[in-house]
Give the backbone structure.
Amino acid sequence: MEELYKKELIAIRRQLHKRPEEGWTEFETTYFITKFLRELGLPVAVGIANVNEKEVLGRDETLVKDAIERALKAGVPQPFIDECGGYTGAVTVIDTGRPGPTTAFRCDIDCVLVRETDDPEHLPNKLGFRSERPGFMHACGHDAHTAVGLTLAHWINDHKDKFCGKIKIIFQPAEEGVRGARAMTAAGIVDDVDYFVGGHIGGVLKLGEIAIMDGGFLASSKFDVSIKGRAAHAGNCPELGNNALMAACAASMMIQGISRHGEGATRICVGTLHAGEGRNVIPATAKLQMEVRGETHEINEFLKNSVQNIFEGIDKAYGVQSTITLAGESTSLTPCPEFFETLEGAMQKVPGTKVMDRVHCPSGSEDCALFLKRVIDNGGKAAFVLYGCNHGGHHRSNFDIQDEKSLPIGFDIYRETALIVNGAAAL
């Protein structure tokens, strides 16, 4: 990788690392992306132009308003905020003007709600690019993904004579909680795509190891549940109350008892429960955040239906009213074996790396699965790659990626793939 682009790649990652933003609030990040691309002379569609509003999940209007105010104070121009239409994310298309396929690369842009460690040996602390927003951190590598996408756009634009067709780079908001891809796929963002590549830094791979995932994402559904009971004095007239807290606790225990599935892995988690007004008041309200995950779409649907049945029973048993809101959803990875050899051919050209066996380990979930499925269902080819780093676990306060070594690897994988499938020699 040329030194000019490497320096740019690292600088972008470190700048983004300082200003992390959670899903659907990434206005500063979207402006940074858009400004960079437009200065290259590239067209950029932002925010509302890339989403189907009817399919948006897990978006909090209050958080969005707060984020817009923060972005304006940070110097984001009001006309840009207006252009976004209340939404984040960006898509650019590099059109070579020559006939050829359309290839898309997807990069997620949001952070996680983690407070970055104060350990002086943590690289962002040592070099002065730690998060400036306490409680928010790029602890999953999305700052890295965005930096790779921007530098890739720069390199391809500078070397457009080497390519045919179109290169589309998607900067997706709200990956955490699997919320953003659904709205973008529903808007048709990848319906013209012939080849699609998504990727992630870290995962199960160490620095210098690269691989294709041929399966393993768990289908997942995220729920926000509100329970409405009836308040009463706990001493004078408890019989007049309907205890939302006890209903929530009972539901939580029953959810943990949902039968696992004989045809694949399952995961269930009630992550938060907030309820009650005081020690002597029958709680009138309760709120839960929870999720289910299954190795296949069908298994995940089994879990979803079980959750629905439990809350219907809880409502009758406790005299409460439960409202279940779908806050995020994605599917399992759709394999595309006919694209794997092409992609591994590109990976073999990346210096200083080892191409590992294909990864298939049902554990986490990934919003990108919806993009892959949409492209493959439409007759295109799609795959998801991993490029490793040495980390102690994603979503942890000390997460780091050895950016000077790991990010050029991700960049080279994408560049070599683009040269194979969109190389001018294909004309």
The CA atoms of residues 31 and 76 lie 7 Å apart. The first strand starts at residue 44 and ends at 46.
